[in-house]
Amino acid sequence: MGQYALRALQAKEVTLGRSIPWDVVDRWGQLLLAKGAHIDKEDLVSHLLEHGYRQVPKSELARMGELEMGQHERRYRGLPMQAVRRVATRLGKVYASAQKLGLDVDEIRDLVHQLVDLTRNDPDEALASVVLCNQGSYAIWHAVHVAIVGLVLAGDSPAMEEARKSVAAATLTMNYGMYPLQDELQNQEAPLTDEQRETVRSHPAASAEALREAGVTDPIWLEAVAMHHERLDGSGYPRGLSGREIPFHARLLSACDVYCAAISSRSYRRALTPGQAMREIFVNSGKLLDEALAQRFVKVLGIYLPGTVVRLANNEVAMVVARSEQANAPMVASFVSRWGEGRAPALRATVEEEFAITEIVDPDDVRGYSNLLHLWGDVCGVRESKR
Ligand SMILES: [Fe+2]
Question: 53, 91, 161, 387: which sits with the fewest CB atoms below 10 Å from its CB?
């Protein structure tokens, strides 16, 4: 790669009706579209934004502050997950300093920009962090996880560019109005006190008010925060809105909020598996969210999020590393042999009968084999060499 790195194409760099000014390659450096080719179809624009990269001098990337994320040769060495963890650390600092200084809205916008790039360039790795990264403040991690799931669900449509950023900004700030109570409740088994209940009930409005005070005027951002606990059937709070009174971006946010809360373990109950959480979403479809959105959850996220540990039909234990066209048949990397021995990760397509997923395995049962975060780095090396 030398003095060059690959950089994912940006929406502003691909224009329908124009010619492409450089060779466009995929993330493995294979040519997708030669320099000078005419961009004549909307589908081609989407394809290029989803898969296209261009060679950029590292000096240019460094100037743009993007060297780390643009370095192709480091992308599949656990770097995206480290980037997600840095976002969480920075968000924690925003929350910690907000009591004295007010919310740093510019920092929130910058974190959104990072998450948009991460979920566009490395959606499977970003989703894996929802399963694998949760050490530290629940409130902070939950906000980051909901943002990642929301951004992946919103897809890569250029038309959604601004709304997507607004919704992601809303996810990072929706529960600010009950921070740090949200962390305290994570470890509380006793019922809520009246004061706590009131703080919970008023937090959507309190969060929106804090954002207004910090200078936020974006109506989608503010509305999504204020309405993220409203429910389709009118059972939500604080206003008890129903149906189409709740705009799409608020419904998307609340569905992602519920999904991520369901798959996180709390002290007083075990987490649901991603598959169980998905069933919850469907059971509640019509009550909580519309059916089209529920179907999009399954189609885009699949039944098994990357990072999930599963047992295969041949008795191997594996980690999900990539979603596939089939919601119930992702790519996995086997790291425990059929005889129960640790092994170098090997890539398996679970669509094949021999490797079909038979059950989800509790990560605690396989921690003896490997630190799951380290394992993620290892299995991603497998992905890179096999694809
Ligand atoms: Fe909330």
Answer: 387
User: What's the CA gap between 359 and 137, in Å, rounded?
Assistant: 30
Type and span of the H or E element at 226: helix 219-226
In this prediction, residue 60 has a pLDDT band, given cuts at 50, 70 and 90, of low
Tally the domains of the chain.
Answer: 3
Residues 63 and 158 in one domain: no
Final residue belonging to a domain, choices 35, 69, 103: 69
- Does 184 reside within a domain? yes
Written as six digits, the tokens of 225 are 């925060």
Report the C-alpha gap between 110 and 112 in whole angstroms: 5
Interval between CA 328 and ligand 1 midpoint (Å):
30
Q: Name the more confident of 146 and 185.
A: 146
Convert the pLDDT of each residue in 249-301 to its tens digit: 898 898 899 888 888 765 555 677 777 887 877 777 777 777 788 888 888 99
CA of 175 relative to ligand 1 center, distance in Å: 5
Look at residue 68 in the predicted model and tell me its pLDDT.
Answer: 39
Q: Looking at the domain assignment, is residue 37 inside a domain?
A: yes
Distance 160 CA to ligand 1 centre (A): 23
d(CA 178, CA 321): 34
**In the beta sheet, which residues pair with residue 1?**
none
- The boundaries of the domain holding residue 43 are 4-69
Same domain, 286 and 319: no
End of a domain among 43, 69, 95? 69
Distance 242 CA to ligand 1 centre (A): 17
pTM of the model: 0.77
